[in-house]
Input
Amino acid sequence: MTSPAPSRPADAGLIEKLVSVVGVAHVVTDAQALAPYLAEPRGLFHGSTPALVCPGNTEETAAIVRLCVAAGVAIVPQGGNTGLVGGSAPDGAVLLNLERMNRIRALDPIGNTLIVEAGCVLATAQRAADAAQRLFPLSLGAEGSCQIGGNLSTNAGGLAVLRYGTMRDLTLGIEAVLPDGSVWNGLKALRKDNTGYDLKQLLIGGEGTLGVITAAVLKLFPAPAVTQTALIGLARPQDAIALLARARIASADTLVAFELISRRALDFALRHIAGTLDPLGAPHAWYVLAERHASAPGLESAFEDMLAGALGEGAIADAALAQSGAQRASFWKLREAIVSAQRFEGASIKNDVSVPVAAVPEFLARAEAAVAALCPGIRVVAFGHVGDGNIHFNLTQPEGVERQAYLDRWWELAGAVDEVVQALGGSFSAEHGIGRLKRRELARFKSPVELALMRRVKSAFDPLGLMNPGVFFDS
Ligand SMILES: Cc1cc2nc3c(=O)[nH]c(=O)nc-3n(C[C@H](O)[C@H](O)[C@H](O)COP(=O)(O)OP(=O)(O)OC[C@H]3O[C@@H](n4cnc5c(N)ncnc54)[C@H](O)[C@@H]3O)c2cc1C
Output
């Protein structure tokens, strides 16, 4: 297959035409104003762009795409710029940010659907559902700034996948501007629609390589009337896996979150983040933060009895059930604090991997042995959505080592983890996607058959290769 011609640089003529579509206030070329859109959360990528363009509606988005394509200029779609793999970091392309397209178009409490524009911030969509006594269950640390279009394009997962699934499961329809500038209105609110290929699933998780998502129909659920949250101390990851199976049955499958936390991860949070408290009487090697929701009361004592039974048998070491909203918030604060606490301990090499749930203990043991053999003194910070088999297996530098020298070993160390993941039938990118960061691993671990199909899908949608070039593939 031949590669498309490389993108051309944008010239003043194109910028003028873009201004004529969206107005001068919505085309940004000033370096200082551009800076926050080019900064990437982990500082791994430094984007560059001739212009940031912010359309106000789908027609303007389509007009921008048509103008760029006619000029042979690449486009990078961008949402809240919270993605963790450099997917929205442009390399000289026009940056198309959806932030002005942030309206809630409709909420249907009978069909339990919400139609939102792609630039709607996730927390705004959650609040709209809540105001109608409904739940939009996607929940993640960046929810105050990430946008629905970005959540869709990365197939975001987050804290409630165990019960509600990822964005793929939470989406009924989408509207998108395709790389030729045509508008695809796929905003159907149907639970059943077997009419050929499910095209929306190609754009979901497509990381902006197949088009610009402009709106979506999302699924809603009854709002939870009961929430039970427990923090549990354990000796071994195996105990967490056994407890997961037991808790799902005892709660009639109403478990929403089941998060694993290592003691080192907790220690970092307690050391560096104000307002965090050691949650149980004595320290434990591992913890689980478990939460269940129900739309009506009924199974509260069954969940409590299950925890008491597990404690009585020695299957877990300790457990605290939140007795108030404040206590629940303090448990979740610990989980969230882990993410920000790591930077105070020096450089960190991040792995966001998944394996079959039953293989998590073996993964943790084998991956830790692999990185410790390569880098004595390395500090593994393991935590994550163990109910989904998804572990953030982050590697904090050994104390006293020079930061950049450690970061220069990123792929030696992350690659060793990915090899263990591969051997266990897992995925080297469970949640965050490929972007520009993980192209190397995509080429290593996807089969030639899959890679060839992915390239064919890309060129069927985007024969000119102008929609987010550099994501997934080097060229
Ligand atoms: C603190 C923190 C916690 C996180 N926790 C989780 C978690 O628990 N689970 C999880 O899955 N992820 C998590 N993430 C990463 C997550 O993928 C992103 O935060 C979020 O989904 C990206 O949304 P965004 O609007 O910021 O997209 P951006 O970062 O702007 O873009 C991400 C990708 O989507 C593309 N894109 C954006 N908008 C569009 C659009 N409208 N049309 C087409 N393509 C588009 C971009 O080109 C890029 O490739 C976390 C990130 C942070 C910073």
Remarks:
- The chain has a mean pLDDT of 96.
- The first strand starts at residue 27 and ends at 28.
